[in-house]
Amino acid sequence: MYEQVEKPKKNKSRAVTNSVTQTKNDVAQGYTLTDNRRKITISRNYGVIQRNIDAQLTNVTQVKALTNDVYYVEHQGGGIIIKFKGDLDSDAVADYALRVMGVPAPESKLVSADMLLERLPTENLGDTEQLRQKLNTRKGTEVLVAEMLVSVALGPTADEPSTDTHEQMDNPQFAFNLGKVAAHDTVLGHVDRILGGFNWGNMMGLTEESIQQIDNQVEDNAFLIPIVNLNDMFDSITGGLNDSSLGRTVAKRMGGMYDKVLDISSFEKGFLDGMTRFLQRKEKLMVALSEHESWWPSDILQDNANRLEEHLKTNGKYFAALQKVRMETFLKKEQDEADKQSARDKKQGKSSFFNFFSKKQ
Ligand SMILES: Nc1ncnc2c1ncn2[C@@H]1O[C@H](COP(=O)(O)OP(=O)(O)OP(=O)(O)O)[C@@H](O)[C@H]1O
Ligand SMILES: [Mg+2]
Fold first, then answer.
1. Helical packing angle, 264-290 and 298-312, nearest 10°
2. What is the dihedral of CA 155, 157, 163, 165, to 10 degrees?
3. Are residues 235 and 122 part of one domain?
4. For the segment 186-218, what is each residue's pLDDT rounded down to a tens digit?
């Protein structure tokens, strides 16, 4: 269904104009455009943990091609990923935006291919020569350098989930986490993970808490919002007769491809949770992005965020769904507390009973 939707063509023209203006300003101030872009990894007060990625390639110990276009390099500054394919500036902005929202995504930045070439050692440390050839094809441009995440992708290829992922598919917590990812992707306008079909290679780390999102992209989300159908989702959570259309579509796809049953209700609640996180962090996101307006596609993402906020902030269906889930969570917590207390009482009662006898003897 989603695959049939034609995505609007990207409009880089504004970005080009902006970056030209920016280059002029930067030159006037004695900076280069590259320096400006690097600012994106400098620590800021957005509550985002920013570890500057070290791309100096000092004392390289290993070079490994993970795919044709993704390389792993181990050096003194840690493990890094060098990526060649795709909209790399979009990737870096999306990674950054997700981290501002508190969503796990790698730190990344654009780095000059020439600089990396200069620093790449001559010894053969695995796939060094392959990487050198690749960097040679990108001379004069920038490539993406990201932190190497210490987890595994949810699948070796887009369509193919790992055995662990397959096992988790009918787990409500996994469905909840997928729902959160779907919400974050609605902010980004990103379809190559869940919304347009599964891409397990773009998700990492199978934990209870969340899924790390990699290979992130920003697209205009105007075409996506009606497809995701927010109100349908909120109605379903509030107690509508039908599951949401997005929940049904994802579940159908999962059933058809992997013979697994998605817990649609948990997926929808995860989606609500992701949307709420977005709304809570929206202002923070706007401030962070406004500092990088010249940085394509920062402007598209700002429009996305405003558009989505419009759909949520005065939406009674959204608040009704939120209230219902919060009430359920509250009641469950109360019940858990009551259960714990009665277990404690029981234990105490039992021990005083034993005490009574032991004292008598
Ligand atoms: N930051 C990272 N940390 C650890 N592994 C990574 C990281 N980035 C990429 N990888 C590994 O490399 C694989 C491919 O990465 P990525 O999806 O970014 O590239 P891609 O070439 O765009 O892939 P595709 O176009 O097929 O989706 C991932 O599935 C993952 O296994
Ligand atoms: Mg990918």
1. 130
2. 30
3. no
4. 999 999 999 999 999 999 998 888 999 999 999
Quickly count: other Cβ atoms within 10 Å of residue 178's Cβ. 26
Contact 273, 179 (CB under 8 A): yes
Residue 343, SS3 per DSSP:
helix
How far is the centre of ligand 1, averaged over its atoms, from the C-alpha of 108 (Å)?
13
> Are the beta carbons of 242 and 189 closer than 8 angstroms?
no
Does one domain contain both 63 and 199? no
Tokens representing residue 30 in the block: 């004695």
Taking only the tens place, the pLDDT of each residue in 67-114 is 999 999 999 989 999 999 999 999 999 999 999 999 999 999 999 999
The CATH number of whichever domain residue 121 belongs to comes to 3.30.1010.10
Q: Compute the mean pLDDT over every residue in the chain, rounded to the nearest whole number.
A: 85
- Classify residue 354: in a domain, yes or no: no
Choice from 68, 81, 212 to test ligand 1 binding pocket (greatest atom count within 8 A of CB): 81
Residues 205 and 73 in one domain: no
Instruction: Write down the residue that tokens 């902006």 correspond to.
Output: 18
CA distance 162 to 139: 36
pLDDT at 11: 41
pLDDT in tens, 41-77: 334 444 444 557 899 999 999 999 999 999 999 999 8
d(CA 193, CA 199): 4
Provide the domain count of the chain: 2
**Does 359 reside within a domain?**
no
CA–centroid distance, 204 to ligand 1, in Å, is: 9
Q: Is residue 176 part of a domain?
A: yes
What distance in angstroms lies between residue 215's CA and the mean position of ligand 1's atoms?
Answer: 6
Q: Which residues line ligand 1 (CB under 6 A)?
A: 66-67, 69-70, 81, 83, 85-86, 106, 146-149, 153, 158, 199, 201-202, 214-215
Say if residue 286 is exposed, middle or buried (CB neighbours under 10 Å; 0-12, 13-18, 19+): middle
**CA atoms of 115 and 138, how far apart (whole Å):** 11
Residue type, 60: V
